[in-house]
Specification:
The chain is an alpha/beta fold. Helix content is 42%, strand content 14%. It has 15 helices and 14 strands. The longest helix has 19 residues, at 304-322. The chain is globular. The structure holds pyridoxal-5'-phosphate. Pyridoxal-5'-phosphate (PLP) binds at residues 118-120, 123, 142, 144, 190, 194, 219, 221-222, 249, 251, 259. The site of pyridoxal-5'-phosphate has 14 residues, from helix 5.
């Protein structure tokens, strides 16, 4: 009998050989510090004896262990339920979903918003529901955007990273083609890029979109909650009226789980009806919706954002003063190392000093551009930032990088 199964062992060996095999290392809690365990496979994990400082998560505002956010989740679980129990369109729509969506719409300056069960689902669901004829996509866009483009089955034209001039020339070229006149076009970009810390030139992208009648969709996953009044880069730059689809996650600064889309009432009505990732998926769990609402409220009405930006500036300045090259222009601080082995050595040196700053290597980033992705959290104390900088100096010297 022929074997029509799958050679999983071979696949895993190939990953191992290419040093691309990943594994799970649990931590005791999600906060700015914690105890990690070595990957345990299916066995019981054993936590390290030393506590590590975490400079690697997207919990940018440090709200995952905030008492108010935890109380909101607890209360929603007790009064509404632990799960939505069904698609929002059946019986899974609750008051906490409606509250969250009203607050998101207010923050994003739109008529309405819609919560999805993840940011991934929001991107895939929205892009496919719009059914564009052509998508123009930044070359470094997130995997969930790329998967949305693939699933939409239309032509995707990739433009150079954060390059509005390249986008414009690709729009121009497409406009010259024979059947472009009745096509629908969607330009899609992250606002803050997760691995590079770069910020998309949104105003120039909107100019290009408007010149050609295209729609613009912006993924604010790494910006939501961090900019003006708890909004994203779209709010910071006053572009809410020019961006057709504002998308983001609840899983990063908002310390919860889920995704959202904000836009016109018509857009949201269409997504409620046509986004398969919304229609055929159980509604966001009520405790997640309530936690995100509370986190968004705190992001809007406290000094937590300022504390994050202070920490990011302190850390960036300290690293640059030491001689490291720090990329980007946001709270994400990619420390460029170059060689993948050097990046691994630096990350290992940091880990030996109880600081978690993972190495990012090809194929996630281009060959020769390996880096450590360093993300401060609003709740890191000044001493934590100093400890991180001291570890960078010592580990950098050990790895001959300074
Ligand atoms: C830019 C971007 N978009 C979308 C997502 C997906 O969001 P979620 O984790 O909520 O599924 C992520 C998360 O990694 C992201 O970085």
């Amino acid at each position: 009998m022929e074997d029509r199964g799958f050679d999983l062992e071979g696949r895993l060996d190939a990953l191992e050989e290419a040093t691309l095999k990943r594994s799970l290392s649990p931590v005791d809690r999600v906060a700015e510090r914690g105890y990690f365990a070595e990957p345990a496979g299916g066995d019981l994990p054993v936590l390290d004896s030393a506590e590590a400082l975490v400079f690697a998560s997207n919990n940018y505002l440090g709200l995952t262990d905030d008492q108010r956010v935890q109380d909101a989740a607890r209360q929603a679980a007790a009064t509404v339920g632990t799960g939505a129990g069904a698609s929002r369109l059946v019986t899974g729509d609750t008051m906490v979903h409606q509250d969250l969506e009203r607050l998101l719409a207010e923050t994003k300056g739109t008529e309405r918003a819609l919560a999805f069960s993840s940011g991934y689902a929001a991107n895939v669901g929205t892009i496919t529901a719009l059914e564009p004829d052509v998508i123009f996509s930044d070359e470094y866009n997130h995997a969930s955007i790329i998967d949305g483009c693939r699933l939409a089955g239309c032509e995707t034209i990739v433009y150079d990273h954060c390059d509005a001039a390249d986008l414009r020339s690709k729009l121009e070229r497409r406009a010259e083609s024979a059947d472009a006149s009745d096509e629908s076009w969607l330009i899609v970009t992250d606002s803050v890029f997760s691995m590079d810390g770069t910020v998309a030139p949104l105003s120039a992208i909107c100019d290009a979109a408007e010149a050609f009648g295209a729609w613009t969709m912006v993924d604010e996953a790494h910006a939501t909650g961090l900019y003006a009044n708890g909004g994203g880069v779209v709010q910071a730059e006053g572009l809410a009226d020019r961006v057709d689809v504002q998308m983001g996650t609840l899983s990063k600064a908002l310390a919860s789980q889920g995704g959202y889309v904000a836009g016109s009432a018509e857009l949201i009505e269409c997504l409620v009806n046509d986004a398969r990732a919304f229609v055929f998926s159980t509604g966001l769990a009520p405790p997640a919706a309530a936690a995100a609402s509370e986190a968004l409220h705190i992001a809007r009405h406290s000094d937590v954002r300022e504390r994050l930006w202070e920490n990011a500036t302190h850390l960036r300045d300290g690293l640059e003063a030491m001689g490291f090259e720090v990329l980007g222009d946001s709270q994400i601080l990619p420390v460029l190392v170059g060689d993948r082995e050097d990046a691994l050595a630096l990350a290992d040196g940091m880990r030996e000093r109880d600081i978690v700053t993972p190495a990012i290597r090809p194929p996630t980033v281009p060959e020769g551009a390996s880096r450590l992705r360093v993300t401060p959290i609003a709740t890191h104390e000044q001493d934590d930032i100093v400890a991180c900088l001291e570890a960078f100096r010592a580990a950098g010297e050990d790895a001959d990088l300074l």
